[in-house]
Amino acid sequence: MLKGRQIGSTNESLASVGQNDPLHSNVPATKIEVTVSCRNLLDIDTFSKSDPVVVLYVQGIGTKEWREFGRTEVINTTLNPDFVRKFVVDYFFEEKQNLRFDVYNVDTRSSNMTKHKSFLGQTFCALGEIIGSKGGRLERNLSGIPGKKCGIIIFTAEELSNCRDIATMQLCANKLDKKDFFGKSDPFLVFYRSNEDGTFTISHKTEVIKNTLNPVWQPFTIPVRALCNGDYDRTVKVDVYDWERDGSHDFIGEFTTSYRELSRGQSQFHVYEVLNPKKKGRKKKYINSGTVTLLSFKVESEYTFVDFIRGGTQLNFTVAIDFTASNGNPSQPTSLHYMSPYQMNAYAMALKAVGEIIQDYDSDKLFPAYGFGAKLPPEGTVSHAFPLNRSSADASCVGIEGVLEAYFQSLTTAQLYGPTNFAPIINLVARMAADEMDGSQYFVLLIITDGVISDMVQTKEAVVNASSLPMSIIIVGVGPAEFDAMEELDGDEVRVSSRGRLAERDIVQFVPFRDYVDRSGNQVLSMARLAKDVLAEIPEQLLSFMKSRGIEPRPPLTSSSSSPSPTHHQPSSLTHPQASCHATLLSCLTHRQASCHDTLPAPRDTACTGHHLAPR
Prior knowledge:
By secondary structure, this protein is an alpha+beta fold. 19% of the residues lie in helices and 28% in strands. The strands form seven sheets. Strands 17, 18, 21, 22, 24, 25 and 28 form a seven-stranded mixed β-sheet that branches. The chain has a four-stranded antiparallel β-sheet with strand order 4-1-8-7.
């Protein structure tokens, strides 16, 4: 999904190249952060400049098939973008890791770029080429449009330190230069970290404050790694710009600092002079172009998904399956619910793919499973949340195999009907989540459906209400239907709202199953791809809830720990090699490594040192 636009905080790609191949078992040598910029892109918009985005594809080790790995943010109206969002990739020294970078002009905020994109060019390279280039900087010509010069794309690579500290700061400015003819200025800040070769890598952009020379920006949080990669004396450069709608932002001035210097803002204000070198050279009486004041600064050690899992937090997995008539008669091969003796249907594949990973984080392996949109015997009443096991007392099934068995059994008794209502099942799980707000439980609802939601208004309200609870919702669309309306619920681009209320967090992840079907018919590969993408956001969503409530992980449970209470299950699965593998996978998805617990005001001189990649 596209997760941001031009003015926003640093976000990193939520996966690693090595994890893109489900059969990959090697241990990466390190993690590499790849920053992307473009110059002189094609201008294909009629009334403005292009709105570029870069999509990274990686080539599978065994299949040689290209799969999407991640996307930068979209930057409006520019032919020379410097993208804030990085690609964080696992580097395997012993392998040739082939990458493909496609550049598109995006005409809409929709994440479905197949309908709203224009191709601007592409290039191919290996990860080793970027790492091995002088100073870790590689330039490549873009190509792919006959007879056109598509511009260039620039990559910079740096090895990531394991520092897990995060800094929260707030800044304001005073008496900035007036740049707008009919107004004042629309200022924003751009942070860069310095590289060993004297170049700078963009780290963060603040929001734009309109029509003022004395802006006060909102507090923002940035990983210390993104600001200085663990080197506290590394130069941090901050540029001040006046925002322009056409992307030709006016430079107001700049100042430099360091993480060590910023850290002193924990005990005192720090004022920086904003200097414009050109104006300083022209005007003898030039003093500055305003000042920027650091109002507040604090450092915290960021907890990881695995910290909470090891501390006993359980993932409670609930399944809801679409039993509406649009799926077709289950006894016919054309039905999405058809049970072939030779292969699983799409519903079963989606359920098994996601469930078999999540079940490792639930110690009792009991999973509530529901159907919706069916007429039930004997009265023929329509239900939008009926237990698949037909038990009115407890909808739980034993393990994922138990859920599958109950699903197949329900197909023989329930009459597919309609409509497609999501709100009842979301509200049902939300009520359970509301009773477990202490961090010991996190609820994941998997909804598998074939069609468009009938109760969108009620569903949006249910999502907004659930966004304040320890809960995430995964929606998998199966079949050939158009799911554009479903993307309204996926808050990656525009936060879901209902009756004037915005969702507190993005808790919905929607994917169409057809995008993950392996062309050769390999169901295992299809399921692995699906599970990887739909589970990618769960760690961040869990962490966002815990952070919003000030919940810290409990100390790690050990095999000698006393038996926990029912609401504090000990995750026995973590002692199993497969569970350990999953824990590593999901930990990597968060890109928060476990080290560097100290916090300022006493900056570390030796810990968390980042190592810039020297040329070979």
